[in-house]
Specification:
Blueprint lengths: L1 H13 L4 H25 L5 E2 L2 E2 H18 L3 H11 L2 H4 L6 H31 L8 H26 L2 H4 L2 H15 L11 H9 L7 H7 L5 H37 L1
Antiparallel strand pairs: 1-2
Helix pairs in contact: 1-6, 2-3, 2-6, 3-6, 4-7, 7-11, 7-12
């Protein structure tokens, strides 16, 4: 465990090297929040609530999603794809570490750095608009933390699972584009699922993406009934189990592909 902690720590420190990227990250993060705040203020200028969601709840949702997106967005697929493309993956088969958990630890370090940077634009927006709601109560706050942790793990597993297919298609860029589009659409990243038409919401309900971030924020804001919170947690655990098994099956198959190509 200590070894994986060091991987995460090194990944966090490596981000300091790219100063220009840090400045761009801060600028784009602040601009994105500013645009979203102004859009939602315009939407609510003629009404107090939309689908039982008021402006304060909506702006809190935007801030929380900005933070969670930094934790759940992942470059695991790209890093795995690079290893496969360059042949470095052959060495990972014999190293005394688990490749999946190494990639997860590395991503955690990068995600924590993203959170560190997200504090600045979020703090600026909160100071400017002075609106951020606490959890409904302690129970919802604890369930939010649990759902968030499960959502992060689910997001990493999903990226790792799809990254494994680079063994066959050789280019993760196509997968990344589709994954990003589906995640934005069905995880509530752009517009909360509360506002979706019934048909689109039905599609979102059968896909795993809403369990990555939307459900955690819904719990935080008290929009998920207490009885449904346990169903959400169970749904996250089921999807995590599904992807754990799927990753193992695809990884075993991928090892055979590499063996054949190398022979």
């Amino acid at each position: 465990m200590g070894m994986y902690y060091l991987f995460a720590k090194n990944a966090f420190r490596e981000n300091y090297i790219y100063r220009a990227n840090t400045l761009i990250y801060l600028f784009t993060g602040t601009l994105s929040l500013l645009i979203q705040f102004n859009i939602w203020q315009a939407v609510y200028s003629t009404q107090d609530a939309v689908e039982s969601v008021n402006l304060s709840e909506m702006l809190t949702y935007v801030v929380l999603m900005a933070f969670i997106s930094r934790l759940t967005e992942s470059s695991i697929g790209f890093k795995l794809g690079d290893k496969i493309r360059t042949g470095e993956i052959a060495g990972d088969f014999v190293r005394p570490i688990n490749l999946k958990w190494y990639l997860f630890a590395d991503q955690i370090g990068n995600s924590l750095y993203g959170i560190f940077l997200a504090l600045i634009p979020a703090g600026a927006m909160l100071a400017l608009y002075r609106t951020f709601l606490p959890p409904v109560d302690l129970f919802h706050g604890c369930m939010f933390g649990l759902s968030l942790a499960l959502g992060i793990l689910l997001g990493y597993l999903l990226n790792y699972f799809l990254g494994l297919f680079v063994f066959w298609i050789k280019n993760y860029g196509y997968i990344s584009w589709f994954l990003g589009a589906f995640t934005t659409l069905f995880s509530g990243g752009a517009v909360p699922l509360w506002f979706y038409p019934p048909a689109l919401r039905a599609v979102a309900n059968i896909l795993p993406f809403r369990f990555i971030s939307f459900e955690a924020v819904s719990i935080y804001l008290g929009k998920t009934p207490v009885s449904d919170i346990y169903i959400v947690i169970a749904g996250q655990l089921i999807w995590i189990a599904v992807f754990f098994v799927a990753c193992r099956l695809v990884w075993n198959r991928a090892q055979k592909v590499v063996t054949v190509q190398g022979g």
